[in-house]
Amino acid sequence: MPQVTLTVNGQTHTAEVEGRTLLVELLREKLRLTGTHVGCDTSQCGACVVHINGESVKSCTTLAVMADGAQVTTIEGLAKPDGTLHPMQEAFREYHALQCGFCTPGMVMSAIDLVQKNPGGLTEQQIREGLEGNLCRCTGYHNIVKAIAAAAEVMHGRRSEIARAAE
Amino acid sequence: MYDFAYHKPATVADAVKLLADPDAKAISGGHTLLPALKHRLNKPSALVDLSGIAELKGIRKVGNAIVIGALTRHVEVATSAEVKAAIPALAYMADHIGDVQVRNRGTMGGSVSNNDPAADYPAAVLGLGATIHTSSRKIAADDFFLGMFTTALEPSEILTAIEFPIPEKAGYAKMKNPASRYVMAGVFVAKTAGGVRVAVNGAGPCVFRQADMEAALAANWSVDAVAGVKQAADDLNSDIHGSAEYRAHLVTVMAKRAVAAAG
Ligand SMILES: Cc1cc2nc3c(=O)[nH]c(=O)nc-3n(C[C@H](O)[C@H](O)[C@H](O)COP(=O)(O)OP(=O)(O)OC[C@H]3O[C@@H](n4cnc5c(N)ncnc54)[C@H](O)[C@@H]3O)c2cc1C
Ligand code: FES
Ligand code: FES
C-alpha cells in the first residue's frame, strides 16, 4: 500500500493508504480530524475545504497520495492552543454566520484563503463570488458575507466593527 | 471508488510508458476524473499522476504565441500577467471556470483532453485556432475536438502544452448553469491573423465553429453584425436545464456579449 507523509496543522504524520483513499478520508478516519466535513459526492458543496500549502482545496476531490509532502491546515488548526479563536471563527460567531454548522468549517477555510489573497480589501460582490464553491443550506449567505467582511478588517490589521462593538 | 495502483512519473516519456496499459488513466487536477471514479463510472487499473512532471508546467511567450503547459492550473492562467496582457479573454475565461477551489486544482490539459461539451477552454482553443502539443505530435484545434468527450488523442498520448496565437482581439461570454456552473451556451470570438473565428461551447454535443457569425464579423466586426445571425437548434443539446431552442437563442445573445467584450 502507498505510504504518505504530510504535515497537518503543524504535526507530521505518516500513514499507509490505498491509492483511492481521499485526503478527507485520511483526515477524518485515520487522523480523527472530523471537523472537515463531507456534504456531497459531486465536488460541489465545499464542506470539505482545507488548505494545501496555503491554498483552499476540496479535500474530497484530492487523493491522499497526491498530498504527499504537503502542508495541510484544517479547521482544527486555526485556533491558538489556549483556545483563542482565529479572527474568521470569531467573526462567524459574532455575526451569527452559522446555524447547523455543517458547512462552516469549509466556509471558514475558503474565507481565510479569500481574505489572504485580497490584502487590498474585498467588496461584497467579491466575497459572494469567492464563496461560489461553498454551499450553505440553512443560514443563508448574508451573515456569512458580513462575517467575512468584518474578519477581513481584523486580519489586515484595521480597526473593525467587531472590535468597536466589544469596546 | 474502485481501488487502483498509483504511479507518479517524473517525465513525459515514463508517463507514456505507464499509459501503454489500456486500463491505466492519467490524472492531473483530478477535478473531473475523481468525481467520475467516485460514481464508479470508470474502473482504471492504475492512475498515472502527471503532477510531478516539470516539463508540463509553465506559461511562456514564444514569438507571437502564448504557450501554456498542460499542468497549468486555471488560477495560474487567470492571474498570469503574460496571459492578461496578450490574451485577456483567455485569462477572463480561466477566472470564471467553476469556483475558486476548482480553479486551484483543475488544469488546462485535463479540461481540453476531457472535451466536456460544457467545458470552457475548448472554446478558446478552437476560437483562437490554437495548436495542441502532445507527447508525439502537434494537432491543429480544427482537427482535435471530434465529438462529445472525444478528441484526437490516442489512449496513451499525453497533452503536453497548448500554443495560442495572440489575436488582434478576442472576447468570451457564457451563460452558466447556476447550480453546476458549467456552460449552458458560450461563445468565443477572435479576430486573428488567419481571419475571424467564432467557437460555440455548451450548446451542442461538442464545441463547434459558427460559420455564419464568422462571415458576418469578417464583413463588419460589430455587435450588430452578429445580432441578426440565428443559430439553428437542430443538433443542439436539450436537457432539464434548457431546450435546444433556448440554447440556440442563447448563442446569439452570447455572441453579442462576446463581441462587446472584445471591443
Ligand atoms: C464543482 C465543479 C465545477 C466545475 N465547473 C467547470 C466549469 O464551469 N467549466 C469548466 O470548463 N470546467 C469545470 N469543471 C471541471 C474542471 O475545470 C476540471 O478541473 C477540468 O475539466 C479537468 O481538469 P483536471 O486537471 O481536473 O483533469 P483530471 O480530472 O485530472 O482529468 C480529466 C481527464 O483528462 C485526462 N487527462 C488529464 N490530463 C491529461 C493530459 N495532460 N493529457 C491527456 N489526458 C489527460 C484524464 O485521464 C481524465 O480522463 C468543474 C469541476 C467541478 C468539480
Ligand atoms: S464534500 Fe462536497 S465538495 Fe467536497
Ligand atoms: S450552517 Fe447549516 S448548512 Fe450552513
TrEMBL record, chain A:
UniProt source species: Neoroseomonas eburnea
InterPro entries for the chain: 2Fe-2S-bd, 2Fe-2S-bd_dom_sf, 2Fe-2S_ferredoxin-like_sf, 2Fe-2S_ferredoxin-type, Beta-grasp_dom_sf, Diverse_Oxidoreductases
Domain 2Fe-2S ferredoxin-type, residue spans: 2-78
Cited CDD domains: fer2 (cd00207)
Keyword annotations from UniProtKB, A to Z: 2Fe-2S, Iron, Iron-sulfur, Metal-binding, Oxidoreductase
Domain of life, per lineage: Bacteria
Protein name (database record): (2Fe-2S)-binding protein
Example GO molecular function: metal ion binding
TrEMBL record, chain B:
One function term, GO molecular function aspect: FAD binding
FAD-binding PCMH-type domain location: 1-169
Keyword annotations from UniProtKB, A to Z: FAD, Flavoprotein, Oxidoreductase
Pfam families the UniProt entry points to: FAD_binding_5
Superkingdom of origin organism: Bacteria
InterPro entries in the record: CO_DH_flav_C, CO_DH_flav_C_dom_sf, Diverse_Substr_Oxidored, FAD-bd_PCMH, FAD-bd_PCMH-like_sf, FAD-bd_PCMH_sub1, FAD-bd_PCMH_sub2, Mopterin_DH_FAD-bd
PANTHER family according to UniProt: XANTHINE DEHYDROGENASE SUBUNIT C-RELATED
Record protein name field: Xanthine dehydrogenase family protein subunit M
Native organism: Neoroseomonas eburnea
